[in-house]
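Researcher: Next sequence.
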Amino acid sequence: MNSKKWLLIALFLLLPQLTFAEEDCHESEQDLCLYRVKKGDVFQVYARNVSHHEISVEVEFQLENIRPEQGRVQSHVVASNSEVLLTQLHIIDPNKRASYEYAYRYQNGNIDAQHDDSVIYHLPYTPGQSYYVGQSCNTNGTHKGDSNRHAIDFIMPIGTPIHAAREGVVVDYYRLSNSGGVSSLHLDKGNFIEIRHSDGTIANYHHLRLMGVKVEKGQFVEKGELIGRSGNTGFSTGPHLHFVVTKLKGVGDIESVKVQFQAKRGVLSCPRAGLALKSVDIE
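Model: Next structure:
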């Protein structure tokens, strides 16, 4: 899940009386970095996002003799491959000592995303093929809690072609694992693909086989396009595809979204376990 992407960054302390240049974050190993520029009695705080996806960032300031434009705790969404001015900090009395520090954390996704409930999703496999639902929504198994409540497991052999359930942009993937099982040691060993939709939600395709990812970051994929091959990597009781659409409620807080699938038998939401669903082409 994309929750693994949020990080807590150490505090910074600067004295406004000092002269300093723009902080260089071009060499940052992270997708997003913050830097600040001092112009007279104003500090400008910028964010640079070098990834292929939106990033939500939460910033908290500790201030002395400084007034923030948007409050001491702020949340922002930074578009992919962009740089934005987050806020400005104003010295209240230039004749007195002024200082500040700030901490920030961030996560892939858009905290303002609202799922388009009118969208009908393609079943994530080849049209004409039929697979059983192994686990559906809100079960006593692993599909519970905010981030996983509306996940669906499709039982299928390793190597089954996986197709995009909805068009979007590939924002993340992993494909180098060959480890799977029910031990907690496998929890973070699964191969996956994450695809961002136009409404800011993200589709997650999990447990893919070793080298089973057939797309690249930043690639736009159409609904129904081949994106990978199923497997049994990560925390898994057997070969299957785990599919779930998620959105951010806040930085560090993910929730799953109930979606509708088009099957030959009709449109279904949270199909029951044990039901065989045949995929069909949809516009």
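Model: The chain has a mean pLDDT of 88. The two ends are 28 Å apart (CA to CA).
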